[in-house]
Structure formats: C-alpha cells, structure tokens
Amino acid sequence: MTDSHIPTQATLGKFNLLTIVALLDKGAYLDGGDLGEILLPKRDLPEACKVGEQIKAFLYLDSAERLIATTTTPLAQVGEFVSLKVVQVNKIGAFLDWGLPKDLLVPFNQQHSEMEVGKYYLVRVFLDQLTNRIAASSKIDKFLDIWPAEYQQGDKVNLIIGGKTDLGFKAIVNDLHWGLLYDNEIFQHLRVGKKIPGYIKQVREDGRLDLLLTRGSKNKVNDFSEKLLTHIADRGGITPLNDKSAPELIQRTLGVSKKTFKATVGNLLKNGKIAIVKEGIKLL
Fold it and tell me: Is-contact 217 154, C-beta < 8 A?
C-alpha cells in the first residue's frame, strides 16, 4: 500500500472500487474503510494483481455471516428490482438464486404472497438496517414514490415489467412509479422483470401513468426505421418480409404492428434507403 492511498468507505450489497492491501495464498485483502480488511478469495482474484492496485468487487455476507468480496456479478445489487427464482423455502423464508454461492433471503414478512419453489418473483434487493444483512422483498409498493408522478406526454423512461393485469402489464417507471401498458398496444413478448425503454402515453388526472413501448404518432416511424434497417442488414441486405406478410409474422419478427411496418417501409422508400424486389425488401 502506498502512502497516497486513501481508504474508501465500502458499501455492502454493491460493487466497490477497493485497494489491495495484502496478498496471501488464500486470496487478497481489500481495504474496506470502516468495514476493515475484506477477503477476496483466490478463486476470484485476477492474475498478476499487486498490492496497491484497485479492484472492482461486490461485497456480501457468506454462509457463515462473514463479510466477503467477489468479482462475480450478482443478478442485482442493493436498491435494484429484479425477477429471481425461488430455490428453497424453509422456516425462515424463501431463498432466491441471485448468482452468488449464498442465496438471497426473502423473509416471510417481506413476501407479498407466499412464495413457492421453482417460481419467479419480482423483488427489490435491500439492506436490512436492523440486521445489516442483504435481503429481498416482493412488497414492491413500499419502495415506490407515494407522490403523483411528474412526467410529460412523450417522455422517454426506463421500465421494469411487473405483473399481468386484466388490461395489460404493470411496469415500474424509472424505479419510482407504477405505470400501465395496455394489451392492444403491446407488440412484443414481455416477462416479469424485463428491463426495457418506454414512453409516457399520458398522465391521468389521478396521477397514474399510461405507457407505450414506442413513441406515439409522428415519432413512431422514425424510432422504428433504424431497427428495420439493422434487421435487413443482419440478413445479408434483404428480408422476405413485405406488405403482404401476415401481421402476426411482422409482430413476432420485429415487435411492431403491421401499420407501423408499412409506414416505415414507405418512409424509407421515399428516402432511397430500401427497394422493393421480388424476394422482399432490399437494402440500398
């Protein structure tokens, strides 16, 4: 360790850039600031590391409740929403596979509904302030903002797909609010936990959000043009899709309605980007 090294306060449940302070046969010790020196096991240690170098490591508690570092990327960090599979249920709660040797606990009092082995659930990973342990909760509402959302029609947002409803799919907007995607405006496969960009369709009088997966009206064609050009290029410069293709085939292949497909094709034809040929649509 050099004299210029300034200890960094490490954060449990997140990736940290930490300095190597010692190298031993069993691994490296990292400077965790107030958390002390933290072991990074040899199996996770990159080759040719030196004392004084910094390394990006995730911190969690192992099966013996010891603070430990890893370079393995978990499926989520503290503060994130994620869909995870239940691998065990016992008298403590449900345990989720989040990509690390020690499974992630969802205590019974943090389960929105009783969890079952083999099923996936949308959860929020959090740090329990009482026990200082990383845990998860499927009681999503308590992590969202209670105040009405302040968005404008057409705003681009980040979505995390939630549960299915009679009208469509709920989605978490920018990690803060619930919004709704309507079935008749969804043209791609969605699953709970999927992260995807979206747009604000409207903010209702009660503050609730209606969402779209593509920009409405005049922006929709422009949004899809690049995707269609890439689709054609990836297939050697020609696609068999055309204006006679079934709507279901277009939706399944490109994730848009036939109306949007035809409007985009017309726009690209007008701009000299594509041509209609016997085999389908050709990139120029």
Answer: no
